[in-house]
Protein: Guanylate cyclase
Amino acid sequence: MSKFPRITYSSINQDVICEDLTGTILDCSISNQIPHIHECGGHGMCTTCRIRILDGHGNINPRTFKEKEIARSRKWDPSIRLACQCHIQGNVTIQRLVWTSSEINKLQLETVPEGNPEERAVAILFCDIRGFTKLTTEHSSFDVAHILNRFYTVLGEPILLNNGIIYQYVGDEVIGIFGVSGGLRDKNCRDALRAALGMQYAVERLNRIELVDFDVRLRMGIGINFGRAYIGHLGHPKHKQFAVVGDPINTASRIQGLNKKLGTSILISQSVLAGFATDTVEFGKDVSVTLDGHDHETTVYEVIGFKGVDVQLELQRSLDYLLENEDEFADRFYSKVFEIAPEARSLFKKNMLAQGRLLTHMLGGIVYSMSRPEYLNMGLKLLGESHVKYGVTEEHYPVVLKALLDTIAETLGDMYSGKLMKAWEDALTLITSEMKKYAAAVSD
Ligand code: HEM
Ligand code: FES
Structure:
């Protein structure tokens, strides 16, 4: 029997021995190559490393001050802990509670009041898809259900990638809310607009690749509005649901409805326009209308796209494609690294397949975290510091950067474009230089 305590990860049924008692449960996951989301890099702020203690409560330190604050405000029961704040003295069995980056947004709902709804400033996106009638009348219900599922997935993803919450799917409509747990107006509006443009790419790709055999072309209309709406849990006392109510919601829906008449795809209101630097966006027509139920005119603006390269949008639209076969991607990447710098091979002590999955998991996580830059930076600090312990030096970074960019360029295939590569180069240069900066601070 080992003299060191054991952590059992219940859902993957894996045991690991925790040899460093000064480390946290999160440190133990990382050093054992167990994917464990930790967006803020272990600073006890993002809550993404949360775990449920299934057994061995008495073998963990009491909640830290940071944890107490979070647990109180989010009404956690005593079994929920932050892995980055937990040290163990004996065996424990745990369950990781956040599995994928896309689940992180759901955590925002914990900040929504259980009692009386609260007024919060949010950007609201309504997306309606046209072209379903042909689909439902000409294909089997099995095909329709399959396509609907694909449609909900690809349209939901851009909302999640941009720090939004998927509020509702109603028939052929998807509603996203941005800024549920706060944030600056310009960021929430820009996030919503980026999600809209991401949805446009997603539908184009769905039409071009997956729907070709069905002889169906989906078209979409999006309306975005910004305003103060009531947010809370509403409904029967025994069945309350997250709800957003107020005029800004109805206005967003009506703006969306104008697309058909105006022959446009994305329309935003004046209040969204006021939310960000307009010189970064390419506009089409603008029209003044009196929306149903209003007694005043509203001007709506057609959006064509961002001017120049929006790094996040480019990364988001290529991520799925790049990581479609993640083991192959990682394999290709490590071969390139070891080809350029054979001596780096000896730094990798553990299972390379698991290491490859951690790398791709991390790349995906970074793209998601870019919509929460305050956490991304903290995560990169931890990553930079831990790489010093792995024996990584400053000279290794350009090698990895080149190998990653070459792997991306090769994997992109038909999708390759100078704009896309420039976005990946900018993002990865930023990431590696942040990691290097934190690594240098440790080495000094
Ligand atoms: C884009 C920059 C990089 C990213 C995103 C990245 C990501 C990761 C991740 C997620 C891990 C898992 C452990 C942890 O979270 O601490 C890891 C471990 C590791 N990385 Fe990196 N890394 C990067 C750059 C580099 C560079 C420049 C090298 C040098 C060759 C390197 C070598 C290693 C080694 C040796 C390990 C530990 C593997 C083991 O224990 O067997 N990484 N990296
Ligand atoms: S709270 Fe633990 S990693 Fe962010």
Q: What stands out?
A: Residues 38 and 48 are 6 Å apart (CA to CA). The mean pLDDT is 90. The chain has three domains: 6-99, 105-308, 312-443. The chain has 13 helices and 13 strands.
